[in-house]
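Marked as duplicate of an earlier ticket. Keeping the data here for the record.
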Amino acid sequence: MGLLFLCLITPTMALAQPFFSQPVFLPPAKAFSFHAQIEQKHILVVRWVAAPGYHLYRDRIHLEVTPDTVHLASYTLPAGKWMNIPGVGRLQVYERTTALHIPLHWVGTPPAHFAVTSSYQGCANAGVCYPLATTTIPLALTQSAASALSLSPVSPTVSAPPAPSTQGLNTMQPPVPASAGATALFATGLQGDGSIWILLLFFAAGLGLAFTPCIFPMIPILSSLVVGQVDSTSARHARRHAFWISLAYVLGMAITYTVMGVLAAVTGAYLQAVFQNPWVLGLFSAIFVVLALSMFGFYELQVPSAVQTRLSRYGKGGHFLGAWIMGMLSALIVGPCIAAPLAGALLFIARTGNVVLGGAALFLLALGMGVPLLVIGTSAGHFLPRAGRWMDVVKAVFGVVLLGVAIWFLSRILPGPASLTLWAILAIVSAVYLGAFRSAAVRDSGWGRFWQGIGLALFAYGLAMGAGALAGGRLVLEPLAPFVVHGEAIGVQPTKTANQRFKRHMVTSLTQLHQALLAAKGHPVLVDFWAKWCVECQRMDVETYGNPLVDQTTRSLVLIRVNVTASDSASRALLHHFQLFGPPATLLVSASGRTVAKYEGYEGPQTLLQHVQQKLGIDRSNR
């Protein structure tokens, strides 16, 4: 029985990825800026500023002054924050404001004017990298007996892309995503009158988000809490007890969402990211393993006796406190969906500083997301059997579910084949406990044979997952994909990967792109905007275009790579023509030559496959 529930919950966990609306990226001048001034005599103060949600790369920042009679003293850029980029390695990045004080020297008389020039390059956290930018700030120096050299404000000069040529590309204008203004719509709504109605709108938006995959992992967590804490409760009080446990869990989640959201908007730091490192995820997975083993009856988890005595004055207060803490941890580590309502509330707080109204919107949004959890938890308390053999079976079911949740967390940090191996082990061991290999004497009853059949099916699926993991597979729902896409027989490798096939059509200008599209007329086309300095592009090369399913599906497409590594006038013209801030970006062009979709930022393998199937009508069966 436990594994039947696992069969139902496994697809849910596999699909429980964050729900992202199409992000709206800032123009380069608003995403990054460079400033310079003189605060003390002979001391130049320079600042690089990255907007919230963006970062600059330390090794891409350069600084110089003109004329050559002015010199900067020796300086070292401050240490940045280490960021691990898949497929690239660890790089130091700057977030928000980074300042540097540098003494000035000159030969002879101090010049009346000089200029500071800085080049810098960065990316959006959502997955778009911007081309190298160069900003020149002219400074006018005036000598004063009472003060240091002062700055006369002069407008900085920022390199901008030239007006692009549109020769032959009038049909290539990509569509604007329909959801592009959703975030701004929610932020603007909070600034208007009728705040009560706006807050109710956020509550309704939370209800809508509750039915997205990002809430699914919380369902088995809450259900397991209810199972573990109401089994000894009388039937008359079970529903009420389950309701209060569920409410404590939802309030812990909602309060944490609110606090972390307000702090993120005020400080510009996405604090939840702190809880996504391997150590924290590993620890949280271990907690769920410990809870699962207690469900199997290996031991009983109890609060220390001194604490139990104090909490006993408040009846079930200890249970409620545990549920509240678990709700808080779930909010921190499972993570909320970054959808338009949430982003709009954060944008409103950042713009206006109105923490009260923005925080209230976040709280009601989180409460709306928690309503279905409240209903599910209360219903679980009502329908659960009382203490006895059946209750032990139910607890074992949720023990398996908690192990599945632990594997789901580990899959964020483990390689795909490793996590698929863990799923295989869980399925096989569970199949054995279901009696897949019991003797005929033990399985005489109809129910015994039924559960043995379920166990055998689960055992076979576990073997399939194990075989897929050995072949490099990573998809729980398609464990044998490596054997299917590698050819007609096991071990036959594809002649070329999608990443290799991009090299056949590498273009660096609008003219070359136009010629490549004309040559591909009559075939659907995937256009990939790429740069060597773009870390998200390299990540897509490894994770997306290196995926065998993507390789197989895109074989009927013409793949064109637009290389904007040079960041020269031709590169800027390409980006400007397609209204892109930088790579990576993906265009899908129909066989008739019409652009049917434009996607900015990192695209995972499953997301890209879905877009290709929906927009171009290409699926994996078209081989």
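See parent ticket for discussion. The mean pLDDT is 71.
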